[in-house]
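Sample 3 of the quickstart, ligand calcium ion:
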Amino acid sequence: QLQLRLFSFTLSETDVGANPVQVEIGEFDEAIEVVEDVVAENPCLNYHCKKGKVCEVDESNTPMCVCQDPSTCPEVEGDFEHICGTDNKTYESSCHFFATKCTLEGTKKGHKLHLDYIGSCKFIEPCVDSELKEFPLRMRDWLKNVLVTLYERDEDNNLLTEKQKLRVKKIYENEKRLQAGDHSLDLLAHDFEKNYNMYIFPVHWQFGQLDQHPVDGYLTHTELAPLRAPLIPMEHCTTRFFEQCDADGDKYIALEEWATCFGIKDQDVDKDLII
Ligand SMILES: [Ca+2]
Ligand SMILES: [Ca+2]
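Result:
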């Protein structure tokens, strides 16, 4: 009996006084209107959500960011997009990682969960003190070489700004510059002492590249991720190095802390060099 009543209700709804032609025209008009509405008024179109969230509209058509369901992340084949979290769990991709982190928002666990490095979780050798001292030597030299390479390849001014180019030009044209290569730690240390000035700008430049969300003179764990995440699987002192960079332990790396980490003297730390 219940089934019967439902059936008759449906029938009366669709059949109310309509002749077939009217129904067709009506539906056609409506379809066009709906499409236009979606294009013009989809509040999610230009609504930006941070990683791990997607835009949805509520009942009043107001856009809001909600946690993405990890199962809606694009399927990844193979393990090349794997992410190791600080919980030592392997995530299929950064999408899966950030979606999971979002669902833990507000919890202690979520607060502590960060993207640790690119790749599946693996055993990373502990970094001993002597190795930790070597790390900034190689990192500084690498930063300098990255900048010089960008300078050499920058034909269309896309890689460096004019101001940055002026700075790098001085390094590039300096005859005393240690050329890129596999140098001994002694040579790197010696060069840092002798050509100290060449290292000041690259250290500032890298800080500026990372300090973007927001630009405030402090690096969060997330801002640091583009540099440290690919580095950790290759350089086992990365984590310890950046941890001790945060000298006051407030979880942010200030420009002063950053510069000190790379051996830049206090008097040479200059936020105006972040150009
Ligand atoms: Ca920042
Ligand atoms: Ca700090």
